[in-house]
Amino acid sequence: MSEIKGQCHCGQTEWTVKLADKAHVLCHCDTCKTLSGAAATLNTIIPESDFKLTKGELKHYTYKGDSGKDVNCYYCPNCTTHVYHHQTVMGPKFVVRTIALEGAKEWKPAAEVWGKAKMSWEPEVATTFEMMPPEA
Length: 136
Hints:
It is built from one helix and eleven strands; from the N terminus they run βββαββββββββ. It is mostly beta strands. β8 (82-87) and β9 form a beta hairpin.
């Protein structure tokens, strides 16, 4: 397990995560596209206990996911960088934005989720799941 530091765009918020694998899970859901202005976001799924906020505070808002259960989105109150989402349907796991972690530009994609919402022009770069992988 590696402990990796993360930082928001403005530097007001910092955190650490523990990761077994340094890899991205690309999410193609419509919410991620709307929030990021991109075709996908770069993420990983970790146990809640492997996340630690080390500087600043986070704000959050809640919306209903496709499951009908709450999704809590945590972000820097200054620059609005999304740090993680907690999909309550997944229990005590966080979906952490990996691109804000040190060294993330060198990481490879491990999987793609919400493939059913993928843009038609996007190539497949990793194993793609229609929604979430069964073990998530």
